[in-house]
């Protein structure tokens, strides 16, 4: 013992300023004492707290891929649902409005993962083909009121509009720079006596080349624009009605695209020579190549046009007003959202995950407003994808909303054990080191999760937790026992979470049941629970609910799997519920007592007597 201590203190001294981390620890100890004088306290070596833990071969290669936040690139056994979604949403890429979609399925059946996968594909394809289409995802469990949903969407679209404006302004400014450069070059060419720059130097449309230079007395970029190149100035023409303020989609590729001269140099040369053009020779040919007019193939006919457009974009940007997270009247929020969506031509897909939570919390107003938007939008189109694991929530919807929202329905059935096995197999290849898994681990995780209504999230949790437990035990491989321990741990964690988040009244009812069980009462009935519950309420000054309401709370606890309540017939005494606890008593009691209100109940013993008093 004393040796150990001295070794520990040696460590402190010896490692001093010269030694690094763990792997050098032993070696450093052996190296004898070093000088104290030059040791910097900030560089003090660690005492190896983590070294042992780090020294074990880690089981995981990449644990992140087993976490719920990871979006897989492949979703085995969901191709039917994914293809169906894609078939509906492809309309957006054709500039049409896709039907609204309702996605149903129990928890962990891959609804969110599949919908996100499809929307990623949709957005990237829309970029590829330059068809404006955006997907906005909202989790209604978090954003659960009409105000918040609309505000969040409004702000997202405002942000997106600002981004688009920024890009457009950048491109327009680059265009102005090009114009300046072009003007400078033309001016310097004009002052060069060797170079005879005339109107025919300007790139023109097809007719310019085809018809021969001689005919092209007034060069033009296209049917609507004309430029006096001798003065080097562009004359404004009515190519674009700037007064409408329509968004001009100026991508940099459009801006950079070369002017169509309508033919090769050879053709141009031939035409020119045969037409006896004023412009001849190499210099002119190089002008055609080098000095394409920057405004050709743009909707602008002069620098002033471009500047006007920049000013109007800047004014638009100034006019955007971010919605605060509270405080505005809802119709104002709606109107800002509406304008933000309609700012430019595009198809917008709004994905409302856990949509049932939104309806439960704040009715169907949001869905009503969103589903009738298309009839009023001028530029854009909106389509909704609702995701829910509650199949019944549409019963609470206004029939119009229900039929509009459910234009297309896609069901995600639970996975069976074989499918879960495939999913786990795919992930485990990336998640674990080579032979970290013993062969029975994946089948066991899949079997446990299949019992839980085929929940892939549960299966992945089990596999990850089993890996963590094995790692903690410094085992080299994950074995069946780790999976069983993981199953118990997850179950306990679930119970703790459910109990912790119960409302106080339910906690009191549960506490009453625990007290009865702890005092050896079996086959507890509702009346007994009610009596203890009443005393507990009095003790902490809580409202006392009616016995009927307490019976309902017991049924809710039963549904949550915390208690087991069976109805038994007592012959001529009628029927009664027999209640027992389905969760570990100690842990559950500890969670209840961690609630500050319940922790006031200190001496619980006397309450149990109530059973015998009544
Ligand atoms: N076919 C699959 N292939 C790979 N991973 C999957 C598959 N299905 C689901 N998962 C994974 O399972 C977890 C749960 O999936 P997801 O969140 O999509 O379920 P959900 O049906 O939306 O559940 P909830 O209704 O609880 O939100 C995620 O980590 C997801 O990546």
From TrEMBL:
Residues 97-416 form the AAA+ ATPase domain. InterPro entries: AAA+_ATPase, Cdc6_C, Cdc6_lid, ORC1/CDC6, Orc1/Cdc6_arc, P-loop_NTPase, WH-like_DNA-bd_sf, WH_DNA-bd_sf. It comes from Natronoglomus mannanivorans. Keywords: ATP-binding, DNA replication, Nucleotide-binding. Residues 22-36 have a biased composition (Low complexity). Belongs to the CDC6/cdc18 family. Involved in regulation of DNA replication. The keyword ATP-binding applies. Residues 1-53, 184-305 are annotated as: Disordered. Pfam families: Cdc6_lid, WHD_Cdc6. ATP binds at residues 109-113, 415, 427. Residues 282-295 have a biased composition (Basic and acidic residues). This is ORC1-type DNA replication protein. Residues 184-195, 203-213 have a biased composition (Acidic residues). Residues 217-229, 244-255 have a biased composition (Polar residues). Residues 510-592 form the Cdc6 C-terminal domain. It comes from the Archaea.
């Amino acid at each position: 013992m004393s040796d150990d201590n001295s070794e520990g203190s040696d460590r402190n001294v010896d490692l001093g300023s010269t030694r690094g981390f763990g792997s050098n620890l032993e070696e450093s100890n052996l190296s004898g004492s070093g000088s104290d004088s030059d040791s910097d306290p900030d560089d003090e070596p660690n005492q190896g707290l983590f070294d042992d833990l780090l020294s074990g071969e880690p089981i995981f290669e990449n644990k992140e891929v087993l976490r719920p936040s990871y979006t897989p690139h492949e979703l085995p056994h969901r191709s039917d649902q994914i293809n169906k979604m894609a078939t509906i949403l492809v309309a957006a890429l054709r500039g049409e409005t896709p039907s609204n979609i309702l996605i149903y399925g129990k928890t962990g059946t891959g609804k969110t993962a599949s919908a996100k996968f499809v929307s990623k594909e949709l957005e990237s394809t829309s970029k590829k083909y330059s068809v404006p289409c955006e997907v906005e995802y909202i989790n209604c469990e978090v954003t659960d009121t009409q105000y918040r949903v609309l505000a969040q969407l409004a702000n997202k679209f405002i942000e997106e509009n600002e981004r688009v404006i920024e890009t457009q302004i950048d491109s327009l400014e680059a265009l102005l720079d090009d114009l300046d450069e072009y003007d400078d070059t033309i001016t310097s060419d004009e002052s060069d006596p060797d170079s005879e720059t005339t109107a025919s130097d300007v790139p023109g449309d097809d007719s310019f080349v085809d018809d021969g230079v001689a005919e092209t007395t007034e060069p033009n970029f296209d049917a609507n624009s004309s430029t006096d190149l001798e003065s080097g100035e562009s004359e404004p023409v009515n190519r674009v009605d700037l007064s409408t303020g329509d968004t001009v989609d100026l991508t940099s590729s459009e801006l950079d695209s070369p002017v169509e001269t309508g033919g090769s140099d050879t053709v141009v040369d031939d035409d020119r020579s045969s037409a006896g053009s004023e412009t001849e020779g190499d210099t002119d040919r190089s002008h055609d190549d080098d000095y394409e007019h920057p405004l050709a193939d743009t909707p602008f006919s002069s620098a002033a046009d471009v500047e006007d457009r920049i000013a109007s974009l800047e004014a638009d940007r100034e006019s955007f007003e971010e919605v605060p997270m509270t405080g505005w009247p809802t119709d104002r929020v709606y109107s800002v959202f509406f304008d933000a969506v309609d700012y430019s031509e595009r198809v917008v897909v709004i994905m409302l995950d856990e949509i049932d939570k939104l309806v439960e919390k704040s009715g169907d107003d949001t869905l009503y407003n969103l589903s009738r938007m298309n009839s009023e939008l001028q530029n854009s189109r909106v389509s909704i994808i609702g995701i829910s694991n509650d199949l019944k929530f549409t019963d609470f919807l206004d029939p119009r909303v229900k039929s509009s929202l459910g234009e297309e329905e896609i069901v995600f059935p639970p996975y069976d054990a074989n499918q879960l096995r495939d999913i786990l197999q795919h992930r485990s290849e990336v998640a674990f080191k080579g032979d970290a898994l013993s062969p029975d681990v994946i089948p066991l995780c899949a079997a446990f999760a299949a019992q839980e209504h085929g929940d892939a999230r549960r299966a992945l949790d089990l596999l990850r937790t089993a890996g963590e437990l094995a790692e903690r035990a410094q085992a080299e491989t994950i074995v069946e026992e780790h999976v069983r321990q993981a199953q118990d741990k997850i179950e306990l964690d679930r119970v703790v979470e459910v109990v912790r988040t119960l409302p106080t009244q339910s906690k009191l009812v549960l506490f009453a049941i625990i007290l009865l069980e702890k005092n050896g009462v079996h086959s507890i009935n509702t009346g007994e629970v009610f009596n203890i519950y009443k005393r507990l309420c009095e003790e902490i000054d809580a409202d006392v609910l009616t016995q009927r309401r307490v019976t309902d709370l017991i049924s809710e606890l039963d549904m949550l799997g915390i208690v087991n309540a069976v109805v038994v017939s007592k012959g001529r005494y009628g029927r009664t519920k027999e209640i027992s606890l389905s969760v570990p008593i100690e842990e559950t009691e500890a969670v209840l007592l961690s609630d500050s209100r319940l922790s006031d109940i200190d001496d619980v013993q006397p309450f149990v007597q109530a059973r015998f008093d009544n």
